[in-house]
Amino acid sequence: MIVITGGSVAGLATALALARQGRTVLVLERGGPPPEGPPGAVAQRWKRPTVPGWRHAHTLTSLGVSVLRRGAPEVLAAAVEAGGVVLDLVQAMPPYPLGRVAGDDELVSLACRRPTLELVLYRHVRDLPGVEIRHGACVRGLEVEAARVTGVVCEDGTRIPAELVIDATGRRAAGRSWLGAAGIGLPDDLTSPSRLRIFSRFYRRHGRAAALNRGNAAGLLGDHYASVLHPGDDRTFSVALGVLPEDRMMRTLRDPAAFTAAALATPGVADWLAEDVSTPATGIRPITCPPNLLRTLAVSPSPVAGLLPVGDAACVTNPLYGRGVSLALAHAFRLAGLLTAHPEAGPAQSRAAARLARVMFMPWFEAAAEDDAERVARWRAVMAGDPPPPRPGGLTMRTVGAVAGTDAYIWRGLIRVLMGLRTPSEVFGDPAFEDRVRRALGGAPPRPVAPGPTRAELVSTVMAGAGS
Ligand SMILES: Cc1cc2nc3c(=O)[nH]c(=O)nc-3n(C[C@H](O)[C@H](O)[C@H](O)COP(=O)(O)OP(=O)(O)OC[C@H]3O[C@@H](n4cnc5c(N)ncnc54)[C@H](O)[C@@H]3O)c2cc1C
Questions:
Q1: Are residues 68 and 249 in contact, defined by beta-carbon separation less than 8 angstroms?
Q2: Verdict on whether the full-model pTM lies above 0.85
């Protein structure tokens, strides 16, 4: 039997993929089960205090949709039946050069709140033969014999033997500390600060949807803050405002009036908040984002056999880029595929899993680290009233984004990266692509795609909102 510790997106998707191969799987989840009833109606009542982003804005990129289309079409269909919407991103493509091309059908995303998507995934997995999901089962350690993990130990002292343990405990990657407690040390993880505080709020739409200027979203990733709207299932949408955690002037965004003022000041978002379009459905939910993390247990061929991480337990990237769930789904299916070639827990299996995680995650860890460093330097300069930091030499998401709206070829490349279908080096490293971007830039510094308020305007808007 394979034991999966953690029954959220990564754990459930791994159980699904393994059950398809006829494997017997036990999922141990410390949290409680979801409520019964129609997903759209009950999912938001599912309490998951141990899932960090549970009550926050989520979007599923093209990568995530393509994994579901191939590996679990029933789950995608159930999400749509529950009110999720598959958004055709090509609608946002610039008009030149004209026409759809092969591969454009992949350029979609799923608008669905996280609890709704996870509930339909959960129910599908729960009903699969060979899968048991045990709730209230908090794992506290591992059984290890001769550098081989042979089982888990739960909080209540129950010992459960396992042919393989999969760590799906999320960003805290509990498997790493369990190994430490068993006397097995690991090298340091790769880590890089994300430096982002997010304030998010959900709304219910009763009027016509306004436009999405970013394909699957509206709003902007600006020079000193981010304000992004994502449509959800069942006529809902979220607005997430992102600022530097040290930005004292923006702490007041917790206040609904200040939050609303900032959201209304953002082009593309304001139209959605009109009285005849929507009403708030929740309060303001703040969260400080975790750093970008690539876990050594995931990527170094470890001396320990029988413990493999999946999803956030292997790699965390800044939620601003909306990739975590898609990467977790993709990792789950690819890890399960790898286990058909390496069914026996042992060094060969651990090495193959480490290679897979390195190939899958390193490009996204590096991209997030690079984009965050560039964004943080820029936001800090604006906050301090300093001149902008020098423009990085190579192509970045920001430089490409500045001209993507003028050329469908550049737009497709950027969207494929943003949506997780191609890595930045695959697209930006292509000389023809780079040449086209450079010609479009024409040597001019990149401009924001949509102009938002200046720092001074935003501060005064937020202060006025908070005082109203
Ligand atoms: C604010 C925010 C916004 C985000 N927005 C997006 C987005 O738009 N798009 C996107 O794709 N991703 C987004 N993410 C990232 C996404 O939420 C994560 O990548 C995803 O939840 C990872 O899934 P996971 O299953 O690996 O871990 P988690 O969802 O964290 O689940 C871990 C599970 O393990 C269980 N567990 C932990 N320890 C134990 C234990 N000892 N025993 C038993 N069970 C245990 C927990 O209860 C939990 O159920 C966002 C994250 C945040 C914080």
A1: no
A2: yes
